[in-house]
Amino acid sequence: MEEDPNYKQLIGYVLLKDEVTGEVLVYKRLVGGGEARLHGKASVGIGGHMNEVEGKTILKC
Questions:
Q1: How far is residue 40's CA from residue 30's CA, in Å, rounded to a whole number?
Q2: Model's pTM, two decimal places?
Q3: Rounded CA gap, 39 and 18, in Å?
Q4: Residue 45: exposure state from Cβ atoms within 10 A (0-12, 13-18, ≥19)
Q5: Which Gene3D superfamilies does the entry mention (predicted)?
Q6: pLDDT per position in the chain (61 positions), as tens?
Q7: 3 state DSSP class of 37
C-alpha cells in the first residue's frame, strides 16, 4: 500500500509541550533503532508507521 499513490497512509506523531514553561520534549534516538539514518539524531516527537498485528484491532493493540 505504501507504494500505491492512490492511497494515503496516516502516520501518528505526538509532540509533548509543557503548557506552563513552553518546553518541548526532545530526546536522542538510540543507535539500535531500525532506521540507520536516524541513529543518534534528536527528535521532538514520538510516532511513526503503525504495523498491523494479526488478530488484533487498533483498540486491542
A1: 6
A2: 0.57
A3: 26
A4: middle
A5: Nucleoside Triphosphate Pyrophosphohydrolase (3.90.79.10)
A6: 567 888 877 888 999 999 999 999 999 998 887 789 989 999 999 888 777 778 777 665 5
A7: helix
Q: Is residue 31 a contact partner of residue 39, using CB atoms and an 8 Å limit?
A: yes
Domain boundaries, the chain: 11-49
The pLDDT of residue 60: 56
Instruction: Name residue 44's amino acid.
Output: V
For the beta carbon of residue 25, count every other beta carbon within 10 angstroms. Answer: 13
CA dihedral sign, ordered 52, 55, 60, 61: negative
Determine contact, residues 48/34, Cβ cutoff 8 Å: no
DSSP 7: S
CB 45 within 8 A of CB 13: yes
Tally the residues of the chain: 61
